[in-house]
AmpG protein (Thauera linaloolentis), 413 residues
Amino acid sequence: MTKPRLLGLQLLFGWMNLVLAIPSIYLMFGMPLVMRQHGWSGTEIGLFQLAALPAIFKFLFAVPVQRVRLGRGHFAHWLLLLSAAMLALYWLIGRQNLIDDRVLLFALTFAISIAATWADIPLNALAVQWLPRSEQLRAGSIRSAALFLGAIVGGGIMIVVQSRMGWQVPFWIMGAGLLAGCLPFALLRSRAALPERAGDVPIPGVVADWAGFFNQPGARQWTLMLLTSFPFIGAVWLYLKPLMLDMGMPLERVAFIVGIVGGVTGALFSLIGGRLVPVLGTARAIVLYLLAALCSLALLTVTVWVKLGTGWLIASAICVAASMGAVSALMFGLTMFFTRRQRNASDYGLQTTLFTAARMAVPIAAGVLLDRLDYNGMLAGLTLGVLVAFGLAWRVRGKVGESAQSVLANETD
């Protein structure tokens, strides 16, 4: 495959990851600001976050995507079908301002969350199917960068658009972006055809599919990394805004530093991190990226504990964003490496469910630490968590690196 064609596919997958991420970020992380202005209680805003629950069940959504064939352009047809459902939901939620209709707004947000979570499965199954293994680390870094940019767009820009141009306009923009991303897949769907299964070969059961994932060389060691490498630093990023506010920093400055500068830094280091993995080697990159995360959290913890001042706080926040970008790029790239081509959807769905469950559980524990031990205790606990993740990564780096190298070698052969 030529380099321009590969670049075009990478940008296409990056764009679709971006437009699938924006609606959930806008509705669940950006909208609470508007909700508060319209009299929603803290409990109501907190319960609204339950609309993110479908992400935990991605492994179940992957089953029909893997097994129910929709013609020869199997995964592409699934992606187009689910994107059409999202467009219909955008029309429903954008018809009128629902900020005072709590139940209907939650129901439609929950439905959009299901559709976006489900559509992510055929999209990234196509990335595994279409892209050479040598390009999948880059695809992971682009996906990570897209999520950071999605946080900027969904958590900031769309709120400004709604404030100035009305309730409907963000949904029109999101719908147009999704439609623009779907058109190339409609044209390229013939590439998504999978080889027909021989009639005498039985289709493995769902449980056998999942067991087969863990039976891959290095898969159990990789699962430990998947569960531990990102959630602790991700939880720190979640609590950075309230931390800075409580330390006396103005709201607008916090939004600019964390929301914009931090988001751009994370996106940039996602791309840099993905590019460096082939140079460093997977095993060395695993250790160095987690060491960077450990150092950035230690710096933030010392800054808050010793009260070094605003400058150090900003610098440590940027370091957290940079290391988080590099780690997330590595995680997404290796997720593709451990996704078998014959089980694109089921393997990807299983891994992202494990990742999401850990990513949602750690912030809850961090919140308990915050309430009982203040920021010093919370940051110390999360830094200890990254230290444990670093220790695990040090022990399994060789096995995970060998497995990734074996995947590349098998494709080359």
